[in-house]
Design brief:
The protein is of the alpha/beta class. The chain has 19 helices and 17 strands. Helix 2 links the parallel strand 3 and strand 4. It is globular. It starts with a strand and ends with a helix.
Length: about 550
């Protein structure tokens, strides 16, 4: 008997054959009642970071004339040992996604338990009941080497098997809305042929109704608003598909304040998402070389950036920290590169900037590890056999999302160098990329394969408090601009560590006064892009020698 275990340790038995029959009967009964009441049936395929919140937003929507709900939503998740636990928790009204936005949990509880217009299931037969199907199935880009995007490939196997199942089960009138970020051309060159072939086998003459509208989800305190109250781009494979997707999105999101942009073809909306994120990744990578310049020439890159940002035309320039992280920016450019060769069939190598930007962002955190080494050397210490504290595991401030975070590269590199690394993050209870590295994010795809000496991470536990993390540490890495870390005082850090330690600032967390105080306390300080630190160090030394 197999079980799926929730993050809090609760065990749920994986469904057996007879459970599927009973589950479909449950859904069919619910749908019959809701259809009689005039509800449209929406199935959301995949209850991950995007799908779970999208299911809630759709269910929570109301008719803009009557103010009454009009969508009955079925969230569908495959019953694997890794993810089945989401379904019973969801059906209790508990969000499977932990978020700093309290509205996520409130919305799902409201729609499941109070409105009773949202449920979750493990049976793919739910597809037979859908008027609209929203596809939120993972599409990843697998990197074969760290810092060499071009050796990687898009893993569309889960999407392909999903499209095959969709074609075998949906009714001809069902609109299939692909929300997943996919390689440009995937809707027309992958989804359409698979579903069309399945329709032919079922003797269905109608054309599949296929549309694409990518998500712009932003984890954090405005998670729900980033789905419901934000601009959307959409397209359909034909006129009827475009008409249906415009109608559907207009009914569930705030198009009055955030109008839809409707493009002619799915490949245009697919390309839109890839270019949008590649642009962002490139801007961040661009600052890497200037950050290195600043370190070696006595310049504080953060002050330079602040001086530039007063120009309205340059207000979006930001410091990249130890890597960009998140699910989208580290991989999306690779989807475009892969599609150009494997879906469109071109052999010419037109992509230079996009892959290089991702390579720079992926490896930037290695430099942070080097700064730890250098700061410790200045104190007469080595990384090997030292205890080092990492403050911040997520990819950005005030969120708990650890996917592709620069912090993971830092902890893995320091571990490879022989350090014993502890970590704390106020938003992260479990660092699954470490604790379940054999299977997470998928078997064989962990970043552990790029480093030696990683085996012990299966026993890794996050420190519950900053004090526990810092106790007896020889160095501390300030990796993420979480509010508790911005508020840390040098005297407090040294007290918790028990002695002066090496301090590395990866994200402009320390102001000049705090840097100066660390030096006064006998610490050594380094920082990404903080070339002016040596001036502060010399100032303190001169004062102490006088």
């Amino acid at each position: 008997m197999e079980y799926s275990i929730s993050p809090d340790g609760e065990k749920f038995k994986i469904p057996e054959e007879n459970d599927y029959v009973n589950e479909y009967e449950r859904l069919a009964k619910l749908v019959r009642v809701k259809k009689e009441e005039g509800y449209e049936i929406v199935v959301v395929m995949g209850l991950g970071f995007v799908g779970a919140v999208m299911a809630g937003v759709v269910a929570d929507s109301v008719d803009k004339k009557t103010g009454q709900p009009g969508k009955f939503v079925i969230g569908m998740q495959r019953p694997s040992t890794r993810s089945f636990w989401k379904i019973p928790l969801f059906n209790r009204g508990l969000s499977p996604v932990q978020s700093e936005d309290h509205e996520v949990a409130l919305m799902i509880e409201r729609c499941v338990n109070q409105k009773k217009i949202l449920t979750a299931t493990f049976t793919h037969d739910a597809l037979k009941l859908a008027d609209v199907l929203v596809v939120d199935v993972q599409c990843d880009f697998i990197k074969q080497e760290l810092g060499n995007l071009k050796s990687g490939y898009a893993d569309i196997s889960a999407l392909e098997s999903s499209f095959k199942m969709i074609g075998e089960k949906i009714l001809p009138h069902c609109l299939v809305l692909i929300e997943t970020t996919v390689p440009p051309g995937a809707t027309e060159y992958v989804a359409y042929p698979i579903i069309k072939k399945a329709f032919r086998a079922r003797r269905i003459d109608e054309e599949p109704l296929l549309a694409h509208s990518f998500e712009r989800v932003m984890p954090g305190k405005d998670y729900v608003r980033s789905v419901r109250d934000f601009w959307r781009v959409c397209s359909g494979i034909n006129a009827k598909s475009r008409e249906r997707v415009v109608q559907f999105l207009s009914e569930i999101i705030n198009v009055e304040e955030y109008p839809l942009t409707v493009l002619d073809k799915p490949i245009e909306s697919e390309t839109c998402k890839i270019v949008e994120n590649s642009y962002r990744a490139t801007i961040l990578a661009f600052l890497n070389e200037w950050s290195l310049f600043a370190e070696t020439n006595g310049v504080d890159i953060l002050k330079v950036i602040d001086a530039i940002k007063v120009r309205p035309t340059h207000s979006n320039i930001i410091f990249p920290g130890p890597g960009i992280g998140g699910y989208c920016l580290p991989k999306d450019g690779g989807l475009g590169f892969w599609a150009y060769k494997h879906l469109m069939g071109f052999e010419s190598d037109i992509f230079e900037i996009t892959p290089q930007a991702i390579n720079i962002n992926d490896t930037r955190a290695l430099h942070a590890a080097q700064l730890v080494r250098d700061a410790m050397r200045n104190m007469g210490r080595t990384v090997a056999a030292s205890e080092i504290t990492l403050l911040g595991a997520s990819y950005r401030e005030d969120v708990g999302d650890t996917r592709y975070s620069g912090s993971e590269i830092i902890i893995r590199k320091l571990t490879e160098m022989g350090a014993d690394v502890k970590a704390h993050d106020p938003y992260v209870k479990h660092w699954w990329e470490l604790e379940k590295q054999e299977t997470y994010p998928a078997i064989g795809s962990s970043w552990s394969r790029f480093f030696r000496n990683q085996e012990h991470f299966s026993n890794f536990c996050m420190a519950s408090t900053i004090e526990d993390a810092l106790r007896n540490s020889d160095a501390v890495v300030l990796a993420v601009r979480h509010k508790p870390y911005l508020e840390l005082e040098p005297d407090e850090v040294v007290r918790m560590a028990g002695a002066p330690l090496a301090v590395v600032d990866c994200f402009g967390i320390l102001d000049d006064a705090k840097i100066e105080r660390y030096f006064e306390l006998g610490c050594d300080v380094k920082g990404l892009g903080r070339g002016h630190i040596n001036r502060i160090k010399n100032k303190v030394r001169k004062r102490q020698s006088d």
